[in-house]
Amino acid sequence: MEKLLIIKSLSKKFGVENVLHELDLSLAEGQVLSILGRSGSGKTTLLKIIAGLETLEQGQIFLNQELLNTWPPQRRNILYLYQEALLFPHLNVVENIAFGLRLRRMPSAEIEQKTAQMLEELGLSEQAQKMPDELSGGQRQRVAFGRALIVNPRVLLLDEPFGALDAQTRQQMQVLFKRLAQAHRITAIFVTHDLKEALLMGDEMATLDHGQLTVYPTKTAFIEDAATGVQAELAFWKNLVITDPTAH
Amino acid sequence: MFRRASLLVYLLLCIVPLLLGLGYVLAYSFGLIGLLNHGFTTAHWRAVLLDKTFWQSLGYSLYIALACMSIVVVVSAALLAGFRKNLTQGFLSAFIYLPLTLPAIVAAFVCFQLWSKSGLISRMVYQVGWIANLDQFPEWINDAWGLGIIFTHTFMATPFFTLLFLQVYEREKIQRLEQLAFTLGATPRQAWLKVTAPILWRKSFFSILLYLVFVMGAYETPLLLGRQSPEMIAPLIIRKLQKFNLLDMPQAYVISAAYLLLLMGFGGLVFSKIKTRMA
Amino acid sequence: MKKTLLFPAILLAFIFGFPLLFLLLLSFGQQWPYPSILPLHWSEETWQKIAWEKRIGNGLGLSLLISLSVGSIASILSLLLAKAVAYSPNQRWWLGGAYLLYLVSPVVLAASWQFYFLRLGWAGQPLGVWLAQFFITLPFGVIFFNSFWNEQQRSLEHLVATLGGTPWQTFWRVSFPLARGPLLICFFQSFLISWFEYGLTALIGVGKVQTLPLMVYQFIGEANIFYAALASCLLLIPPLLLLWFNRRFVFIER
After folding, report:
1. Residue A176 CB burial class (10 angstroms; 0-12, 13-18, ≥19)
2. Measured between CB atoms, does C79 come within 8 Å of chain B?
3. Fewer CB within 10 Å: C terminus or N terminus of chain A?
4. CB contact under 8 A, C138 and B260
5. pTM of the model
6. Which residues contact A36 (CB under 8 A, 6 or more apart)?
7. Cα dihedral: B158, B162, B163, B169 (round 10)
8. What is the sign of the dihedral through the CA atoms of B91, B92, B93 and B96?
9. For the segment B202-230, what is each residue's pLDDT rounded down to a tens digit?
């Protein structure tokens, strides 16, 4: 399969600290790569470098065989989604979603049609005229998704996108993302510190620890590696013995 | 590119004027420029630093600012404690803003018409029969203790700090902390002294310090309400500048330079303390 | 419990509002010999003088012109400059300069600048006074907007960039609309700094640029308290109007 995104020996330092070290990675079109990483592992820096929001010291980033290194973020069409939805507080839901299209000076009629369709897909039609501060956390994150997807990004970078949501909303959003990813054939890197979420969302798996990236050939390899913590988790559930004091 | 140009403009419009001013003042004070000056000399600095006028003026300015801010902090805290409900709703919440609309010169004028020997208070005291003529009324304006100046600045600053404290009280959710203290067994007095007051103090310390420096540099109020000895620092500088005694000019610039350098040192100190604490 | 506070609250409100009432009374008064509590005669004559006494009208017009233009230009420029300062790696040093300018007594600054203004022929000119006031309001604006250009703002800018927006689009579609509220507050605050300024104006204007605060002082010097009260009332009209519209225009945390 032809790879869409290829990263070769990427390194980044902040002062003397090695944030990312000799990092290699490739991603085929339509695939989602889950990266499991704790806070401080360098994951945010990695995503910002790919999006062009942070400079790199060494290495190459190719998108469709073109070297991206010196491209400004505006040209890359790679979108970075934050943990918080970061909606424009002065625009309502429709205008937040339409924002990227307005930047491209698309005809109004076309924008209207596309945003209506996106709202429908996200189940937000009823909220169309609301302002960001009138929405729930899950709704805000959905608007952020819509705002990103509507411009057809080449790659979507998600940085703990559901980290601020409660467990139930988080699950709903995971299902929604999975559905959208398949429908739109989204190429994405999904960074999370949640083991279950990483397994659920990714087609391919990797871990990032102290700036070192380990990519696994298969999901099975990821599960079997003790370093990912999956084995420990399985052992916990297997060995769980319930001692119920009321049973006596 | 744009950012670099902006920084250049900032440099030109904010930093350069400051440096030019400081440069001129320093050069004049060391005899490098000016009509009666003949090259580098420390004579003017020596004259100023060895004379008590400068030190007295500095101390007097500090005294006025400290006296004013002590009263302001205490009164503002008391107003917050006693009138918090009235300050958030109803007529008092509007009236408290009124003193903020007063320029210093107008506030000083009102103070003069109120407290001077022929002022409104003196007339009222006369009508009541406490004094037989206006000379018996105490000297509260142009007095040695700077009572008029302190009164004016206190009047202008108290609403400001009351509103500031109110803002801190709400932002830091102090009411919830007070209630927590109550459940831990604190009396209202203890809750106020051990919870509310320390938080208000910490959170507004920087503003109090800034205001203190403002009052120290006051010009209009001592101009109308003060006297020549002791005299606050800003009117002293301007008086020495405008006396048209050319020998006084270098001294005025020595005092200006000393004041600027003092503020720079003080600012640097506070700034490094505050920023390192935040980082 | 709140009932018992009504009288003290009224008393406080009276104290806070008293200077305004007092000035208004004096501006309508005509003779006020000791020991009468109120002026002996009342007349609106002083107020009518605004119309035909040229210097009051001129002072009012000049003050308005200077303060409105200083306020608007300084606040817009400081919004832009504050961004460069806030995003600079040496933010602390840059900002230190602004804080220092903000702290120094304006009249002492004027004393240190007077030589340059005289040399350039700007002293005694409205232009000179305008510039000097501009120099002291600009640092205020930069400090004011420093907190506007925060992490959140930077993230929004990044987001717009990845969505394909140019810096120009970012400014007009996101930063500027978000800055509109703060800009208004900064404008009014800068306006008031300029409107209230006495010492700096007196020194740089060498007494030739007669703004309203200078007239108040001059009338006091002429022992004409009724005129001084009138000029004071005129000085209070803009801040009172601002207060009427929005309290935040008059009070901000420094």
Report:
1. middle
2. no
3. C
4. no
5. 0.87
6. A192, A193, A195, A198, A205, A206, A207, A208, A228
7. 160
8. positive
9. 999 989 999 999 999 999 999 999 998 89
